[in-house]
Design a protein that fits this description.
The strands form three sheets. Strands 9, 10, 11, 12, 13, 17, 18, 19 and 20 form a nine-stranded mixed sheet that branches. Strands 1-2-3-8-7-6-5-4 form an eight-stranded mixed sheet. Strand 5 and strand 6 form a beta hairpin. The longest helix is centred in the middle third of the chain and has 22 residues. It is globular, with a radius of gyration of 20 Å. It is built from eight helices and 20 strands. With 324 residues, the protein is of the alpha+beta class. It starts with a strand and ends in a 5-residue tail after the last helix. Helix content is 29%, strand content 30%. Helix 2 crosses helix 3 and helix 5 runs antiparallel to helix 7.
């Protein structure tokens, strides 16, 4: 079973020998997984049926459950997702090979907490590898979405649950475009989306935590260059308001939202382990620098959302008075 995915500015080729894992991958692709290669794949993800340990005799111990040799890395059960990982890389390609070998405890948890397991497995197989490889090319992860609304291209950031997904989905339904729901990467100018299903109340797909359900993001844009930065907040009244905010506040919001994001909670150790073992990429992504670059280059605004659903993003940008 084979598929291809354009995500985070990379082309990912996926080969899977386990049908149930391929179903999980296809679901996590949000309708974006295709059968033909559009461009040369820069990331290879292979899931093997073999359940033996990866051979590490003679390798250097990197950390508990992790080894390295000549730029290759083996990690046992990273992020407790149940898959062992073997990384090889060349200057222009990364190859991630996985084997399903969960300890008994993690196997039981996967059966009991299905939604949690699906999110973890997708992160391990589809998101974290490409996030790390994009990081070796200067693109850092952000908890943000760029979209096209009312003739502008805002970059939206804010903590989980504030209402960003609802705004983005409504804008796409009205004919707009967006890079994604929760995650993106950026070099300080362009924003590339991470492929994932959108999770909102009233969706038609898999049930997820916090009363949300999944669905595809229609009209997804692979990348956008934002022309303004909106920091979303939840207000205490029914009325929404838009006002300028400082560069420092906007940059801080991008950074704090990224580090608070549940989707990235396990990513930092994953990326550091691969960078230490492979000798590539930063030990930690320069998120503060990229956030500062975006906030310095773009006009920054604070968008306080009313307690009740109201105007869409285009209407807010068109009709809400911007304080001088």
């Amino acid at each position: 079973m084979r598929g291809f995915l354009d995500t985070a500015g990379e082309c990912v080729a996926i080969e899977c020998s386990l049908p149930w894992v391929m179903e999980l991958i296809a679901e996590g692709g949000g309708g974006e997984l295709r059968s033909t290669e559009g461009s040369h794949a820069s990331v290879q993800v292979q899931v093997e049926a073999d359940r033996r340990q990866f051979e590490t005799r003679g390798w250097e111990l990197l950390a508990r459950g992790a080894w390295r040799r000549n730029g290759e890395v083996v990690v046992e059960n990273p992020c407790t997702a149940g898959f062992d990982l073997h990384l090889r890389h060349t200057p222009d390609r990364a190859e991630f090979t996985y084997r399903w070998r969960p300890p008994a405890r993690d196997r039981a948890v996967a059966r009991l907490l299905r939604s949690r397991f699906h999110l973890l497995a997708r992160a391990m197989l589809m998101q974290y590898p490409v996030l790390w490889w994009a990081g070796t090319h200067g693109r850092v992860p952000l908890h943000a979405s760029a979209c096209v609304a009312s003739g502008s291209t805002p970059l939206l950031t804010g903590p989980s649950g504030v209402g960003r997904s609802t705004l983005v989905v409504a804008e796409v339904a009205a004919g707009g475009q967006a890079t994604g729901d929760n995650l993106a990467v950026s070099d300080g100018i362009t924003v590339w989306g991470i492929v994932e299903p959108v999770r909102v109340e009233g969706g038609g797909g898999r049930r997820m935590p916090h009363g949300r359900q999944e669905g595809p993001l229609l009209q997804r844009a692979e990348s956008l260059v934002p022309d303004r930065l909106l920091v979303l907040e939840r207000g205490r009244t029914d009325r929404s308001s838009l006002s300028p905010c400082s560069t420092e506040k906007a940059a801080s919001a991008l950074v704090t939202s990224t580090y608070m994001a549940g989707e990235l909670r396990r990513y930092w150790a994953f990326a550091a382990t691969l960078s230490a073992g492979a000798g590539r990429g930063p030990a930690h992504p320069p998120i503060t620098g990229v956030a500062s670059a975006l906030a310095t280059r773009l006009p920054c605004f604070s968008l306080v959302l009313g307690r009740r659903p109201g105007m869409g993003l285009s209407q807010l940008l068109d009709t809400v008075d911007v304080a001088a």
